[in-house]
Write a structure and sequence with these properties.
Number of strands: 0
Number of helices: 3
Largest sheet: none
Strand content: under 5%
Helix content: 40-55%
Radius of gyration: 27 Å
Distance between the termini: 33 Å
């Protein structure tokens, strides 16, 4: 840990800085993770990527900034323990399997009940095909991590 006031390296348990005598957690002149000088309203350290704001209460991580591409990859993992909320992703995962399944079932029922050569039977096959394409697309997206 580094003092937020003077940038001196300190023990993680320090309650006062031995360099400036201030509370090492107060202030915003230096990054607490690497000690590099920071600007007044800066929210992320440009040297190490650490958050310069205090602890988060909204469930989002406050550690090093990981960028949107890595965040998207991490967020989709079920059972994530790194601070990213997984509830919405689990709901979308369930829906992405249910919607193609409904297409298969509805299409199968309509194919069975429709007269041979009718437009209704043709439309029912569209539901079945869309369900298969949706399931394949879903499997491809799930395995691309």
């Amino acid at each position: 840990m580094f003092c937020r006031n003077c940038g001196k390296e300190l023990s993680d348990k320090a309650v006062a800085c031995i360099g400036c005598g201030m509370n090492p957690h107060d202030g915003n002149a230096h990054c607490p993770a690497c000690g590099v000088a920071t600007k007044d309203k800066q929210i992320v350290c440009t040297a190490c990527g650490s958050s310069l704001k205090g602890g988060s209460t909204d469930g989002w991580p406050t550690g090093p900034y990981i960028g949107p591409r890595r965040a998207a990859g991490r967020a989709g993992r079920i059972g994530s323990t790194d601070g990213w909320p997984t509830g919405p992703y689990i709901g979308l995962l369930v829906l992405s399997f249910i919607i193609p399944l409904v297409g298969w079932i509805y299409g199968g029922i309509q194919i069975k009940n429709a007269a041979e050569g009718s437009q209704r039977k043709s439309q029912a096959w569209h539901f079945v095909i869309a369900g298969i394409v949706g399931a394949v697309f879903n499997i491809i997206l799930m395995s691309a991590d």
